[in-house]
Design goal:
With about 190 residues, this protein is an alpha/beta fold. It contains 5 helices and 13 strands. Its EC number is 4.1.1.112, 4.1.3.17.
């Protein structure tokens, strides 16, 4: 799997893409100081039903992949809980992005599994399906495909289309250099 620079974060990713690919700001990190950068593996869940997430775990993607679960924006039940989160972490999944809810939030935080979600609930989901794993999904009007790059941290989640990753990395690094030069100038002006 491709290695991405440690300096890459959601702010630089958003600046590089001029705000394109930024997911809605109601999808927040479950835990402060979370950061994940990796290719997306997409799943479409049904309302109040996570059979598709279970199916995704039966055939784990490459380690370092970020599971992106769409379709949960109206769900009242959890996309996953602590046991599935541990299964994902043990399987090498780098993190989870969902427009749904999660449960067992303390367990998930304690295991240090990176999750971005709409909120929490104690309610378990159904497992009736349908189960759609792979392909293309949409969250907040933003299209996400298998292999697109997910950049997520405390500021939010940004998706870069796979065919633009190299170009956007150059733009992000240029912005980082500009910001560092400005920071150096500002620090010199201290009274």
């Amino acid at each position: 799997m491709e290695k991405f620079p440690e300096w890459l974060n959601a702010t630089l990713a958003s600046d590089a893409s001029e705000g394109e690919g930024v997911l809605p700001n109601n999808i927040l990190p479950l835990q402060a100081n979370s950061l994940v950068v990796g290719p997306a593996h997409v799943v479409l869940m049904s309302q109040d039903d996570n059979l598709s997430v279970r199916k995704a775990l039966e055939n784990l993607p490459e380690p370092g992949t970020v599971l992106v679960v769409a379709g949960g924006n109206t769900s009242r039940t959890a996309t996953l809980g602590g046991l599935m989160a541990l299964e994902m972490k043990n399987g090498g999944i780098a993190g989870l992005i969902t427009d749904g809810l999660v449960r067992d939030s303390r367990e998930i935080r304690e295991m240090n599994f990176a999750v971005w979600c709409r909120g929490v609930t104690p309610t378990a989901p159904k497992k009736n399906g349908p189960a759609i794993v792979g392909g293309t999904v949409s969250i907040g009007g933003k299209v996400i495909r298998d292999g697109d790059l997910v950049i997520a941290d405390d500021d939010g989640v940004v998706i870069w289309p796979q065919e633009r990753i190299a170009e956007l990395l150059v733009k992000a690094e240029t912005r980082l250099k500009q910001d560092n030069e400005r920071l150096a100038r500002l620090q010199k002006k201290k009274p």
